[in-house]
Design a protein that fits this description.
It is built from eight helices and 15 strands. It is 31% helix and 22% strand. It is an alpha+beta fold. It has helices at residues 2-12, 44-56, 105-114, 130-135, 200-217, 238-252, 259-271, 295-309, and strands at residues 16-22, 34-40, 62-64, 70-72, 80-83, 90-92, 96-100, 139-140, 143-144, 149-155, 161-164, 186-193, 229-234, 310-315, 318-320. The structure holds flavin-adenine dinucleotide. Residues 62-70, 84, 101, 126-129, 131-133, 135-136, 138-140, 174, 178, 186-187, 221, 224-226, 318 line the site of flavin-adenine dinucleotide.
Length: 321
């Protein structure tokens, strides 16, 4: 029944969609089960009306940007996923930028840096869309989209559209009222307050530094979601003390160049998780790489391993199971 009604709606409104498609063909890390409808609105008006229609007909749907923060398990088979990536216009005004929800942060940041705006230098390597970066309060190198938000255009599940100031967004470390499920709905667009940089050449230089930092100290974007955890504290147990002491000695003796890799291998070995080696980035233990078809089951062991080494772990990515 839902199928028939939805199909009718999609064709009447000229919406681009794919039917019975594997999420692994669509998602950032190429995972996920079958999706009945993957819908890609091309304009904000199409997105708004589609989501209103889905809400009013009580058709459950997921809204996604570039899926660079979501691990879709193979068991996850949603009826409807709405992708915002084609709703991606932005207009630069006097002291503000109006961005559709699906604007790429990287594209916007590079453009704004070229035009001399402050605060974008760290965002030139941040995957994802503008709305998601508000949803996640994503940021890096002291830059974030959410710190520039003047207001967001919000479609509530009741179908009303309102402009919200930053207050109700409840932004906190890598989170927001939306991420914590205190608020629901779709962020349609975001108005950013922007200023010209006092020293744009300095910002451009810092931008190059951040790109180099990502290249040398972080995993490339392929088949990973960046950091799986946003907070963690090393446990004060005997195994960790041994690992830290050995790493200090190796560092002092300059036996190894890559201490992060050395420490990772030592931790895996001392905790008995050597089989995880190929799935954990050599550059950052917080980054899991969905390298092959076994990665999904190994991810459970990865979380178990991290829980033994660290305490106060706060997961940053979203899992759809
Ligand atoms: C290689 C790599 C490096 C990364 N480095 C960083 C980093 O340095 N700092 C950092 O903070 N993050 C980092 N991330 C994580 C990621 O970039 C951010 O979380 C980003 O905001 C996700 O954007 P997205 O469009 O892919 O969101 P998605 O993964 O598609 O969605 C994330 C959430 O936002 C919701 N959402 C999406 N659009 C809307 C909308 N219009 N309205 C309401 N809800 C919506 C979705 O439902 C979902 O719950 C990294 C990721 C990768 C792959």
């Amino acid at each position: 029944m839902i199928n028939q009604l939805l199909l009718q709606y999609l064709s009447q409104h000229n919406l681009n969609f794919e039917h019975n498609i594997s999420l692994s063909k669509k998602t950032w890390i190429k995972t996920g089960g079958m999706c009945s409808y993957w819908i890609v609105p091309q304009t904000k008006a199409q997105l708004t009306e589609l989501c209103r229609y889905l809400y009013s007909n009580k058709i459950k749907f997921d809204i996604v940007g570039q899926t660079s923060n979501i691990f879709f398990h193979s068991t996850y088979c949603p009826d409807v996923v709405v992708s915002t990536v084609k709703v991606n216009n932005y207009v630069i005004g006097d002291g503000f930028i109006d961005c559709d929800c699906g604007v790429s942060v990287i594209k916007l940041a590079k453009d704004c840096l070229e035009r001399g705006y402050a605060g974008f230098y760290g965002l030139v390597g941040l995957p994802g869309t503008v709305a998601s970066s508000v949803y996640n309060n994503a940021g890096c190198f002291n830059c974030s989209i959410s710190s520039m938000v003047e207001s967001v255009e919000w479609l509530s599940p009741k179908g009303t559209v309102q402009w919200l100031q930053p207050g109700p967004l409840g932004l906190s470390s890598r989170s927001s009222a939306f991420k914590r499920k205190e608020m629901e709905g779709v962020l349609l667009s975001v108005r950013l307050k922007v200023n010209k940089a006092a020293d744009i050449e300095n910002e451009k230089m810092k931008s190059e530094e951040t790109v180099n930092y990502r290249k040398t100290k972080q995993e490339g974007p392929y088949k990973n979601l960046g950091s799986v955890f946003c907070e963690m504290t090393m446990r004060r147990n005997i195994r960790n003390k041994i690992v830290m002491a050995v790493t200090r000695i190796v560092s002092a003796m300059r036996i190894r160049k890559n201490l992060r890799l050395f420490r990772k291998k030592l931790l895996l070995s001392i905790y008995g998780y050597n089989d995880l080696d190929r799935y954990i980035s050599d550059k950052d233990i917080k980054t899991f790489v969905w390298k092959d078809e076994h990665a999904e089951s190994q991810f459970i062991r990865y979380k178990e391993f991290m829980g033994k080494v660290y305490t106060n772990l706060v997961i940053e990515i979203e899992e759809k199971i």
